[in-house]
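Q: For a teaching handout, I want to show students what a protein-ligand complex looks like in token form. Below are the inputs, and the small molecule is 3-methyl-2-oxobutanoic acid. Please produce the holo structure.
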Amino acid sequence: MTTSSTTTTSSTTPFPGIDTPAGPIPHGAPAWNRQRRSQMPSHRYRDAHTRVEVPEIPRQWPSRRLTGAPLWVPVDLRDGNQALAEPMGPERKRRFFELMVAMGYTEIEVGYPSASQTDFDFVRLLAETDLAPSDVTIVVFTPARRDLIERTVAAIQGITNPVVIHLYTATAPVWREVVLGKDRAALTELILSAGRDLLELAGHLPNVRFQFSPEVFTLTEPDYVLELCDAITELWRATPERPVILNLPATVEIATPNVYADQIEYMHTHLARRDSVILSVHPHNDRGTGVACAELAVLAGAQRVEGCLFGNGERTGNVDLVTLALNLHAQGVDPMIDFSDIDEIRRTVEHCNRIEVHPRHPYAGDLVHTAFSGTHQDAIKKGFAEHRARAAAEGVSERDLEWRVPYLPIDPADLGRSYDAVIRVNSQSGKGGIAYLLEAEFGIALPREAQIAFARRVQAHTDATGAEITAAELRELFESAQLG
Ligand SMILES: CC(=O)SCCNC(=O)CCNC(=O)[C@H](O)C(C)(C)COP(=O)(O)OP(=O)(O)OC[C@H]1O[C@@H](n2cnc3c(N)ncnc32)[C@H](O)[C@@H]1OP(=O)(O)O
Ligand SMILES: CC(C)C(=O)C(=O)O
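A: Here is the structure, written as tokens, with 3-methyl-2-oxobutanoic acid included.
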């Protein structure tokens, strides 16, 4: 990294390059906007609007609200699995599948049967045992190649559950030119030919439905992707009774989430046979906005969301289904999935993926219900006291009462967590947090003056050690302070 001492600022706007609604501020470069030009080779990249036409629509999504859960489809056993250094073997696949069933998922992508014997055998296991409850739809994934489609159809023979066969092909210009070597017409023929193969090999099976994903949807010309989707729903004779799933992936995130929402709303409002299509999305997280993309896509008309638990998946991952569902829960909307033992869910997923969940991961990380800082601890302590008092006054159980404890977006108890780690003490803490810990752990309730005096002792200790002080150490310090 090199640094430059040159201060470059625009003489007309404090936000060069940002098109602010208020327009440029006219009085030249203010001192608070002096930033140095970086040495990053940003000129090598093009913005999304240069790379693909983004449809201009009279968009409705910004004024809509999320009022219900979409259809959830975990793809951990396929998209998540293909991103692991050590793909899951039979034991890990089975354990992950059982977890997802126990949590309440009723549609699960279980693998890519033509990719490996393990994937094929897992689908056979589902065919030959009662591992999958009868209301769980089994999704299998295949590219548009006849030999691989045959292998996929062989894998599902005898399954009595509902089955979805999911066909994919990349459709964006760079993939057409560089990867597949096909122009638009030739690619259309490849996809329709695979669609015909599926009809021939599995169209007669009453429990089977079809899904199509134009991979890299977000970089595909809107007229072309619409034409392809309409052609496939016509070929597969989509009806409301036997709908086709059209899954529009952000295979690699390319833009701010509002762009994805516009692209989805365009498809939602222009697709033929709309009542015979389940509109699905499959965001990845390259820009760190997978969750926002999924949420805005649902506002824009998507009915189904594919993703992975805790956001495993290629590169930066698939969209995180845990965060999406618990975001709904935190808005008072039933996520339709059971997260009442988040730590058991996390342990199982960590075991199966062999990847740890980050301590700051929304809702599930070790530190997400913990405050170290004084003013936050003070607010939480007061919030807990108010919660208890309100529950008693209203004669409602604390677990049922409306939640409004500051700094805790949801009650950790909803996820099966205790309040033990909510307040932890270090040099950033204050008297409120220290008093909370002493009272919660040892029943020692200090009057305000004593809290202030003891907090000074604790501050001196934590400043000297630079470390966290545990509840037991706090008590020791308290007792020595009493003696001294
Ligand atoms: C965005 C996604 O998640 S897509 C899913 C990606 N997942 C995986 O690839 C995991 C499983 N994949 C595999 O096991 C293998 O790649 C297989 C079995 C599918 C194919 O294996 P191989 O025959 O060895 O081919 P290879 O892996 O090199 O794949 C590239 C070939 O597939 C073609 N191809 C790529 N996507 C598709 C598609 N959707 N439909 C048809 N052909 C495709 C490429 O053009 C290339 O063909 P070419 O060899 O004629 O140039
Ligand atoms: C093909 C689709 C579903 C996919 O996995 C992706 O685009 O990431």
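A: Two things your students might notice: The chain is about 40% helix and 10% strand. The beta strands are 71-74, 107-111, 137-143, 163-170, 208-215, 244-250, 277-283, 304-307.
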